[in-house]
């Protein structure tokens, strides 16, 4: 997979290193000569250019990229890169870094963003995820389709504990994608049973989140009555 990363700072270089280790082809783009540190990520391609300029993106052959990551420290730049990548080059997947949480509402499909990553929101979500049982935690927002990656740790008293996945009437527009049980990561099948303490990861429409939380958190005594 070919990935272009706009922004060769610490964040961009870190992402590039991870992708290269996983066997992907990576191009780092930055307009600041001081950011071009080829020796730090020698396996990557490097381009000294302004990622907001069409001529630069032509040189980068953005149309050959499977993914574009707008990872600069400037939200305005990240939005422009995302919009150009999607509308001018038809890049299938555009991921954008949100630096200022106040700007998060802009990072949506209208600006070409498929996935918006807000570091402050993600950090707070991970804190909530670590301490919350029975509460739905939003980990990541997918702009396309208005869906989110959400997590809930199944409480001891949940009426669904011991129930097979296939027997649960899940809300519409939700999909259980992973069960984390201790050190195991399970791809759920209809025959798998839910256990108290399971971390359940869903892709769910935002409008269904409250319904999903109510379903998972309902107490056994409430369900029986």
UniProtKB/TrEMBL annotation:
Protein known as: Trk system potassium uptake protein TrkA
Keyword match Transmembrane helix: no
Keywords: Ion transport, NAD, Potassium, Potassium transport, Transport
Listed PANTHER family: POTASSIUM CHANNEL PROTEIN 2-RELATED-RELATED, TRK SYSTEM POTASSIUM UPTAKE PROTEIN TRKA
GO molecular function: potassium ion transmembrane transporter activity
This protein's GO CC annotations: plasma membrane
Taxonomic lineage from the root: Bacteria, Bacillati, Actinomycetota, Actinomycetes, Kitasatosporales
Matching InterPro entries: K_uptake_TrkA, NAD(P)-bd_dom_sf, RCK_C, RCK_C_sf, RCK_N, Trk_Ktr_HKT_K-transport
Domain (RCK C-terminal): residue spans on this chain: 137-218
Keyword Iron assigned: no
